[in-house]
Design goal:
Structural class: alpha/beta
Number of strands: 25
Oligomer: single chain
Largest sheet: 8 strands, parallel, barrel
Shape: elongated
Distance between the termini: 26 Å
Amino acid sequence: MNKLYKIALGLTSLLATSCSTYEPLEFDVQKPESIALQEDIDAYPALKSYINRSAHPNFKFGVALSLNDYVNKGVMYRLANKNFDEIALGYEMKHGAVVQADGSLALDNVGKLLAAAKENNISVYGHTLCWHANQNATYLKKIIAPDILSSTGPGWDLITAADFESDAATNFQSNANAVISYTAMGGGANGVGRALKITNASVRANDWEAQFFLKFAPAAVLGEKYILKMDVKADVPATYPTQAHVTPGAYKHWDFFGAISATSTWTTYTKEITVTADMATCGAIAFNLGKTATNFYFDNITLTKYNATGSIQTKEKTAEQKNTLITSALDKWMSGMLAVSKPYVKAWDVVNEPMDDGKPYELKTGVGRTLVADEFYWQDYMGKDYAVTAFQLARKYGNAGDILFINDYNLEYSLDKCRGLIAYTSYIEGKGAKVDGIGTQMHIDIKSDKAKIAEMFKLLAATGKLIKISELDIGLGGVKTANATQEQYKEQAEMYKYVIDKYFELIPAAQRYGITLWSPLDSPANSSWRADDPIGLWTQQYVRKVAYSYVAESIKANMK
């Protein structure tokens, strides 16, 4: 809508020289289209004002935010109270935020949130009770750690050894000029057993041209302490150095365990070292024998490393023991969270993101993956029935009438994953636990397949369960905020409207729990969630976008 302004200009220079009466000139200037458009968007009332409570008494229009955003009562607090019926926390009601290192629960902040929400008559949706991410995984792993059978205290651990009583050359070798053989029995140190005999036939130009290697693992680490101890002799007096090699032949440093002197009589050589940066990553000691043409003898080699904590003998817990311990931990967590929340929270994400992306009819697993610090897969210890237990515990410790959801993402992207989640929901109920609703997250963008979105809603509606769009946000297909165009923002607005329209069209009224916007503002560049992605209905400066008006129009039209 274009608006016109009247502007008056006075000719002051003429006034200074004329006695005639001043008469301003009037003409119209058209307001810039962008300003007019923003005024139109800003003219819309608060979003929740469009909800027809008589026709849709149970429908919730929600928003996700942080606990601090709400309890500190700043701009986001006012935005949430004005526009939404319900709030969900992105993190602070999850296991990792509440469960402490000793397993106790820190619930004071949750209590503060519930009190602030009650004061404003805005409901709180519980997110989430059983998930693989945002867990205190350190605590959970600790309670199923192997049992300690014994501990020796600080001391020296044997890293490798060789007494050459057999021909097994598992931890030593030589190059071509250092020929390996063995003495006869009785030729070992002090006349016991046998020894390794290495022959260097001639004096070499370089001592390293005839080398014997002792291998060990793991490789040396900066600051570690080692002791090399062995019995040595030679047919003629000889002194030979040692080198640090990463692997035999892969030279790194000229000195490792010092220079060794041997005579025709057996002597014991002992050398303690602290690993320097030059020695670190090395796993082989090279003995350079090339400067003396003789036979060299080695026996009773040991390489030990200092262990400040001592050696520990452990026993792995059985799968049954782990199941019992993890089930108990889930019980403790859920009973504590529900006890403080049940006076005000009446709906929960009980199980979040159970289905595997690559195998959409199977559960996710942490087996074979490198897990981040806060990942813990309950199902890997409790089995397929982990969700059955979670729903049963939610019923046990919550309110009798609580609405309990299972929730997952990419259901509109992979219809098989949607079918897999529905099948798993049926499995849970077949085991005697009641699931009230299914949540579809819908982190999508302007390029998402609309036909698949519609098909997803049809599949979900056919379950007869409550259906919730649980975490809706819509990006621009990879376009970052600085590069976004007005046309792309219009496409975003249209996609928001399409999703809401289809939800109302395809989900029967009795099954509509509601819709939650996961990111009301565009995501900042330093965010851990869709960084620098303009996904919201408001900019980062709380300015309404065109998507706001399309969402308002969609709610208004569907609330009749």
